[in-house]
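Quick question, first post here. What does this chain look like in 3D?
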Amino acid sequence: MNSQHNPLLVDADSVLRAAADRGLSLPGLIWDDTCSSTNDELARLVRDGGAGAEQPAEFTIRGTDFQNSGHGRLGRTWTVPARRSLTWSILLTPPAGFSQWGWIPLIAGEAVRAAVAEAGVPAVIKWPNDVLTEDGKKLCGILARIESGAGGVRVVLGMGLNTRLEPADLPRADASSLAIETGLDGSEIDHEALLVSILSTLIPCYRELTDYGDEDFRDSPTAQRVREHMVTLGTKVRVVRPDCSELIGIPTGLDHGADLIIDDRVSVSAGDVHHLRPVSVSTDPDRGESR
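> Answer (accepted):
Ran it through. Tokens below.
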């Protein structure tokens, strides 16, 4: 139910019109003032579609002004005060046989990074699913989950971008927000414009990924953009794997499936990455890339 006191920060009709002006056709956008988890809610729509309800179309969006039971990777809880972040999920339906799942959160990271830069905040990508300020403070977390529905395997891609948070709102010391980075009052941060900007990069890059089929996506313009803005490459890191084993080294590239290559010898598909020295931003699109 929508708030009787505050208009929603994102108006569905307005976003659909703005997206159409950029050549994007969206099937639908559900936005309300509060929900438990946009990823969970969108995943439920996919599962309900397998139980006889209408299956949501690709690029259906579920968003909220306040996510009260959000979670990130490995089930970690994630929450920020109401109306202080851009929190939403989008449904992707890769073609049959698609296997390059690791590129999806990286493409989303590039889309967020580009939108944040457009809003005046230089940012970088951290493998596998974060967007940081140039000095390493977290702006956005991204979570992709696979769901099986009547139409086949689908991806629910969610993200939470810190927009209007003030210093006292920050969930941790190494986080920031667009309001803090730009010095703007939070009310001046336009959630609709940010959402449309992200979609304007995300959807074309995702289509490029699916069009590549079995070809090596690392050769694509989108992959080059991801590498150019990925601060993890060339930065000494400690990787904590899901089995709690640790690996220390320097990431030298991404493999065919977007796994992180450490010291030109080990590929890591999942894990928590900790940068062991201050991030350094390079404009070389092929820095450290290993084939």
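The chain has six helices and 15 strands.
The helical segments are 12-21, 38-49, 103-118, 178-182, 191-211, 221-229.
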